[in-house]
Amino acid sequence: MRLKTSLALALIATVMFAFPAKGHDLLIDIEPASQAVLTEGSFEAKLTFNNPLLVVDGETNAELSTKLSGSGDWVSHEIVVMDSVLTAQINLSEAGDYELRWKVVSSDGHPITGESAFTLELGSSQPQDTESPILIAPAPIQEQGSGDSMVGFYIGLAMVILGVIFAPIGLMIRRRARKS
Ligand SMILES: [Cu+2]
Known about the structure:
Bound molecules: copper (II) ion
CATH architecture: Sandwich
Order of helices and strands: HEEEEEEEEEH
Number of domains: 1
Distance between the termini: 19 Å
């Protein structure tokens, strides 16, 4: 009975390892483009991935932050994740070279990160605040069904772990039984 269980778990583990690996999702497009020169401090950053990002119960675990070079402070921005697109409304008042850093959870459940850079050039002739920035309220986006797939993912993961732990124990018990 115990042997059957461990064999079943080992089989599940094998199947899980044989079929999943599609690899992490990839960033396929980023706005502003790497090394872009912007003239407006208020803009929308848009990152497009090759797969819908993982959102569990409205929780994206995604982050996007910028840092003015020379200053040590990373500023994180409000983000919205919609399927495979992450958008962030960015409002910067200081000109200069910026680093951009992002983190998302890939559809396979793994966090992936990346960096980019852009330059903000603000003209001194006219104040930048005349144009009202379009603010997008960060509405909680719920992906229906992703919760179910995560439950499946965790059950699968638990089974793999159980299989890894119990399969050798099962074998040991079998060997000992054979010896005695
Ligand atoms: Cu992955």
